[in-house]
Amino acid sequence: MIIVMQPLASDADINRVVEKITGLGLKVHLSEGRYRTIIGVIGDKKVINGFPVEALPGVEKVVPVTESYKLVSREFKHEGSVIDVGGVPVGGESLVVMAGPCAVESRDQLLEAARAVKDCGAQFLRGGAYKPRTSPYSFQGLEEKGLEMLAEAREKTGLKIVTEVVDTQSVPAVSAYADVLQVGARNMQNYQLLKAVGKAEKPVLLKRGMAATINEWLNAAEYIMNEGNYNVIMCERGIRTFEDYTRNTLDLSAVAAVKSISHLPVIVDPSHGTGVGKLVQPMARAAVAVGADGLMVEVHPNPAEALSDGKQSLTPANFAGLMREVAGIAALMGRRLA
Ligand code: PEP
Ligand code: MN
Description:
19% strand, four-stranded antiparallel beta sheet, binds manganese (II) ion, binds phosphoenolpyruvate, Alpha-Beta Plaits, single chain, TIM Barrel, alpha/beta, elongated, 10 helices
């Protein structure tokens, strides 16, 4: 249930409601909007039955929430969330671009990719140091050495770093280097990991599981927020369908749906979403047109030599073309590159 406070409710009114609710053994989450505060109530609602919340001073109304997620919903927070990643906004009017290789392969490869994507206007460098691969014989990532290279690339370029965390044990190590913790598609329903990143101090980029419904994806975000980390960025990266020309089917309707249901920013990964290099640019255009708050794109200095996902990786020159086109669509949508 959600308690909507009146626009003129005082801090004392809000505190009184919070004390009453927590006194009943329930948990509260506060959403302080521009005009009013909304109090999300979590826990067994039976204990509140019969308690006249609406009679408390400053309370405008009580809204029952029937969905299994609450904190992610627009009922809880009407305005779209803008996640501040060290001064770079994700959400709001600006459009954010995260680009870089699938995996950190070497210092030279990473620095070359970082400089290229920075020159094209990206704000984030992506790159996996821990790679969850379909085959155990495929390149598994450079692990902590890869994290050090990412940190060096940040120092040299000023780009923010987004990189995947694959298990609970490595959350502290990845948090020490990354600006944003990525939870990959394969881990979207790893609830222990979701709780661990929910306790971390860093924003989280939550990829949609390849067989996850929108409801399951939103509930995964709820797990993170319920631990107190409200800085969640959703990322649509394609789902598994019968179509096998593409690696996945990029579900752009999910972007529009999640943006209507939730206040969280949503970005789109057309690289994993299609698995086909030539489809990345058209789908990036479409993603911006549908209202995505940003893009995640795989860029490799030499895709033919990439240790992972070369087929879907763009050359720096192709990425430059994508950025030019996307800037045009962004302007039409009233957005600008962050
Ligand atoms: C990635 O972004 O490197 C990745 C592995 O993507 P996904 O989890 O979407 O497959
Ligand atoms: Mn990849």
